[in-house]
Amino acid sequence: IRKEALAEVKEANNLKALQEIKVTYLGKKGSLTHVLRGMGKLSKEERPVVGEIANKVREVITAAIEAKTADLEQAEMEEKLEKEAIDVSLPGRPVRVGGPHLLTSLIEEIEDLFIGMGYEVREGPEVETDYYNFEALNLPKGHPARDMQDTFYLTNELLLRTHTSPVQARTMQDYGGTQPVKMICPGKVYRRDTDDATHSHQFTQIEGLYVDEHVRMSDLKGTLDTFAKSMFGDDREIRLRPSFFPFTEPSVEMDISCKVCKGDGCSVCKHSGWIEILGGGMVHPNVLEMAGYDPDVYTGFAFGMGPERIAMLKYGIDDIRHFYTNDKRFMTQYHHAK
Ligand code: PHE
After folding, report:
1. Is 281 in the pocket of ligand 1 (CB under 6 A)?
2. Ligand 1 center to 247 CA (angstroms)
3. Are strands 181-190 and 202-212 parallel, antiparallel or unpaired?
4. Is 249 annotated as a binding-site member?
5. 3-class DSSP state for residue 251?
6. Percentage of the chain modeled with pLDDT above 70
7. Is the CB of 279 under 6 A from ligand 1?
8. Ligand 1 within 6 A of 280 CB?
């Protein structure tokens, strides 16, 4: 039995075969067990001799099976390690990362500039009341200048804001008429327009407001000059032209100088050498008063600009619809723009 069993263990080449050998020899019906069970039929003298031999044989077989099991497990592990090895020197698959939208990075760049000049960044609702969008800005119901901004009305009183200027009134109210205000507010605005290369029914604006004692027109000019040079380069000049907004008096439109050049990218600046980029002015006394500020003590300036327009000028983009049609070829060009 011993010889046979050891030979079989030696031959076994997998764990299942070993298990079968164990059953065949040592199991309940195994051949060695059979010998041990039959001991009762032996004489007193024979019993201890046979018993000793049978137990030894069992020990030897058990040890052989255990040793072989360990060998096979080891071999299996090595094979597995070999097969599943990872070549850490292979180059990885590139992970595609997204990037901020051009308008997002431009707005952040403008925010950073104004934060550096002491402005706080605020937000306001896109669904606005008629009161804040118009009335608090010196545009009472029926005022003809309301036509300057074709409006999406939701109800009689609710509308999609046509500009970020309502945030002027909201901020001044929050400050309670007693503290200076210095804020900018970026956000989406909406107008009833037919979309084409230069019009979009939804676009963005950045509002600016500075209210304090003794704020003058020259402060507005200096601030806008700093903005224009930081955005477009130190060689740019600005010029203010008279204009009209019901919520500022006097009102201005600001142009920046641009190189007169022929060919792509400069087309917006073909003729005069100046291009309009924003509107602004001194906050109208009525607006200050409605928001709780005494116009005899406080003065202020405000301005509103369109990031799309600025981006179009800065990067030579010829169609405003590029910002909103999510063509990846367009968008990824500007992931590292500055
Ligand atoms: N709200 C004006 C517009 O959308 C821009 C503006 C802002 C003008 C602040 C003056 C002061 O056209």
Report:
1. yes
2. 8
3. antiparallel
4. yes
5. strand
6. 96
7. yes
8. yes
What distance in Å separates the CA atoms of residue 79 and residue 243, rounded to the nearest whole number?
83
Residue nearest ligand 1's atom 9 by CA: 303
Predicted ipTM of the assembly: 0.98
Q: How far is the CA of 35 from the centre of ligand 1 (A)?
A: 107
Distance CA 64, CA 134 (A): 96
Distance (angstroms) between ligand 1 centre and the Cα of 92 equals 51
What pLDDT is attached to residue 267? 47
> Is the CB of 303 inside a 6 Å radius of any atom of ligand 1?
yes
Tens digit of pLDDT for each residue in 124-153? 999 999 999 999 999 999 898 887 778 999
Angle at 216 between CA 223 and CA 134, to 5 degrees: 85
Q: How far apart are CA 160 and CA 277, in angstroms?
A: 23
- Residue 303 alpha carbon to ligand 1 centre in Å: 6
CB proximity list for 52: less than 8 A, separation 6 or greater = none
The structure's pTM equals 0.73
Q: Give the span between the Cα atoms of 149 and 68, in whole angstroms.
A: 90
DSSP code per residue over 187-231: EEEE-----SSS--SEEEEEEEEEEETT--HHHHHHHHHHHHHHH
Ligand 1 atom closest to residue 208's alpha carbon, by position in its atom list? 9
Q: Which of 89-93, 176-180, 210-214 has the lowest mean pLDDT?
A: 89-93
DSSP 14: S
- Exposed/middle/buried for 279, CB within 10 Å: 0-12, 13-18, 19+? buried
Q: How many CB atoms lie within 10 A of CB 70?
A: 10
CB atoms within 10 A of CB 331: 17
Burial 166-201 (b: 16+ CB within 10 A, else e): bbbbbbbeebeeeeebbbbbbbebbbeeeeeeeebe
Q: What is the rounded CA–CA span in Å between residue 187 and residue 207?
A: 9
